[in-house]
């Protein structure tokens, strides 16, 4: 059951990440971005550094990962717990070794999404005491937001898995197993 949940969540994440890059035209309308200018690329990298660079990226990624894992059903056997701990360690190591790639992807997203002037304005803000405070507190905000939405994510996981089961004609026994696996999920709002 957990494998199906993880696969579905991973599929959703991949689908979202494959969406076309969006930028705003001079009129503020959404448009598919062309290659960002060298100045926009430079400003976006400067912005990433202004908000804490790789250290902040690691903290943010860890906060997001922690929340995803909190939404997963608890493992019930020592062997399953050991395997899940090994998987968590693998994911952490994998992300840590690729933080630079995540930083570069974020910089490209900024460069494609914001105009050069917007990037300059963001940089000006993040160089202020309030901007620095926001940058330092953002992983905490992400973690707290994740805690707040975890019940909704559990409900979504359950509903998606049960819908997939419905589409694949699961047996009553399989449905009962799924319901048991998601017993901690709140009712769908």
Describe this structure in words.
With 189 residues, this protein is mainly alpha-helical. It is elongated and about 60 Å long. The protein has eight helices and two strands. A two-stranded antiparallel ribbon has the order 1-2. Mean pLDDT is 80; it is low at 1-32. The protein has one domain (2-181). Helix 2 (38-50) packs across helix 5 and helix 3 (53-70) runs parallel beside helix 7 (129-167). It has helices at 2-17, 38-50, 53-70, 78-97, 99-113, 116-126, 129-167, 172-181, and strands at residues 22-24, 30-32. Helices cover 75% and strands 3% of the residues.
Task: For this entry, give a set of tags.
mainly alpha, two-stranded antiparallel ribbon, 2 strands
Topology:
Elements: H1 2-17, E1 22-24, E2 30-32, H2 38-50, H3 53-70, H4 78-97, H5 99-113, H6 116-126, H7 129-167, H8 172-181
Antiparallel strand pairs: 1-2
